[in-house]
Amino acid sequence: MLVNILAPIFVFAVIVLIHEGGHFLMAKFTGMKVEEFAVGFGPKLGGIKRGETLYSLRSIPLGGFNRIAGMDSSDKNDDPRAFVNRPVWARLLVIAAGSVFNVLLAFFIFAGAFLYAGYQTFPDLPVVGGVLSGTSAEKQGIEKGDTILTVAGRKVDTWTDIGKITKTLDTRIVPVTVSHEGEEKTLTIMMTDGDNGRPIIGISPYLEHHDVGLGEAFLMGGERCLFLLKMMVTGLVDMISGHEADVAGPIGVARMSAQVADTGFLSLLLFIALLSLNLGFLNLLPIPLLDGGVLILTLIEGVSGRELPEKALYYIQAVGVTILLGLFLFAMSNDIQGLMK
């Protein structure tokens, strides 16, 4: 139960703090004045001031925020180090840094996971990689490392041959010949239903393990990020075009965090990497109020050489609020449906 509570807090805190940390570091790097860097939200529990920046701890431990002087468009700050008074290139770097840091976090987690755990491939050999607990295969003595020779009297050359044979059988009772440490034996197996309703023997395939060096881990981490980003673009297009899209809100993410945490810390880190990549991608969408929308507005200001009229900003922000509210309601609807299943 404690893990179910702490896991979502840990997940949200990491991805939001990394995001805000990107804004913070780039603001400092470009010479802007950062008035506060807060860990958490809500009432302040305490803080330490170092130079001009207050580093505070808030009561709600879900992420954090920056308070950069002149960041609020309504703040007519005359300080030359205020956000609104800095060059356009500096503002663009600060705005983009949050999402860039989220992508970098995902990249380093994926690369680290490949370096630590390596990866597995499916050689399609008729070798048992594992036996499902409680199945007839386990009771009849099939073990990890055994080679499947025949199923229902038909020769097996590859692992995929097993599924091709079993789906054509009219009976659930099937003779299986295996080779165990060089000794052949024929066993009578009672097949059970798999997840897709198809009959299964109750064994899983052998997967070949590969160790990974540092350079290959970085390459594979980058490839994984690119693959997931392409999947996110596809999902966004599906959602816009009215096709079914699997979108989770905060409740859904919290539930998944608790479930993933039960499978181990590495799985939780990989889940954080996926969410961090999602946050980085979504924040760069050209939607007002998101970092991507602010980037576009800042670019327009840089090209035109003047600020947008307040009335135009009002309508742009109203559109942004409408879009974000719609996305939030859609995600919450999916969360509620998930709770009812």
TrEMBL record:
GO terms for molecular function: metal ion binding; metalloendopeptidase activity. It is found in: Membrane. This is Zinc metalloprotease. Its cofactor is Zn(2+). GO terms for biological process: proteolysis. One of its GO terms (cellular component) is membrane. PANTHER family: MEMBRANE METALLOPROTEASE ARASP2, CHLOROPLASTIC-RELATED, REGULATOR OF SIGMA-E PROTEASE RSEP. Pfam families: Peptidase_M50. Its main location: membrane. Belongs to the peptidase M50B family. It is a multi-pass membrane protein. Residues 9-326 form the Peptidase M50 domain. Its EC number is 3.4.24.-. It comes from the Bacteria. SUPFAM superfamilies: PDZ domain-like.
